[in-house]
What we know:
80% of the residues lie in helices and 0% in strands. The protein is mainly alpha-helical. Helix 2 (16-34) runs antiparallel to helix 6.
Amino acid sequence: xxxxxxxxxxxxxxxxxxxxxxxxxxxxxxxxxxxxxxxxxxxxxxxxxxxxxxxxxxxxxxxxxxxxxxxxxxxxxxxxxxxxxxxxxxxxxxxxxxxxxxxxxxxxxxxxxxxxxxxxxxxxxxxxxxxxxxxxxxxxxxxxxxxxxxxxxxxxxxxxxxxxxxxxxxxxxxxxxxxxxxxxxxxxxxxxxxxxxxxxxxxxxxxxxxxxxxxxxxxxxxxxxxxxxxxxxxxxxxxxxxxxxxxxxxxxxxxxxxxxxxxxxxxxxxxxxxxxxxxxxxxxxxxxxxxxxxxxxxxxxxxxxxxxxxxxxxxxxxxxxxxxxxxxxxxxxxxxxxxxxxxxxxxxxxxxxxxxxxxxxxxxxxxxxxxxxxxxxxxxxxxxxxxxxxxxxxxxx
Length: 397
């Protein structure tokens, strides 16, 4: 069997078309994880969940993300990746249909957990695939391009969810997505390139190896903590935004709130550029700038409670800083051990999942306690902690 390392040595890599396919698949898959964000108030009404507790819907999704990173994503280093993607995509379609028909809050949380599991497995599996198959000198650019697809999918998720919900109701969002993912499954069934596993191993060995990476890989540890704090800050904003804009004086529709998320599309360009900066040896310098912008973004976001101009400016800074840091971190951890792509991305995204889930819970609790000001104070505090952590690590290094 030809291994990934042998393929790279033979000069076989990803074509531009294949990278584009991965980017599209990642964007469509990750969108499912974030459809619920602009629909939280509608879900709270439909299932009689209090505004302070509705963040649990996002938290359940992030629990699914964490389980995926422990149980599914590392399988990419053990079994045939193409076969694995097919099975995960089928599971995602079933989970989407389950959300669209459930009438129980408990079943809703279970279905959201499954969406988190399979949506994350598809997204991160594709990123690990692309990074592993690319050449070292092009890895940053490939990761940046595929991550750009993730950014676009994440941003379109809010706009699409809001727009479709205004027309068909929130259940229509998940029915439509199930149909779209079925079309994607048909394309990937025939067009997804086959890449053999890096080395034969049992699943238990891979899990043990993941634990060893978390214990010993310094790059993974540092970048993981930064991911935890950055995505906590990120989700504090996006989970609370719908609560702000659905209440007076804004009282926007779900479609209008979702469209506001498209402001962050600029960050997709930043994600692609950040990969080139990583390839050029500017990873740490870019990280410093991104962390400072992440902190500064909370000032216009706070002022944005009464001004659309300030809100848009804050979204641009928040998304651009977050995506630049995310791409830089992925490029660095993939470079640390080239034959452990699935395990590295799983370990890194475990930190992400914890941060995202915590951010969603903090957001709804802070908004219920002190309104938008408390949300922004919480986000700024987490962003400051990330900057302090990176500064301390850099001085030690």
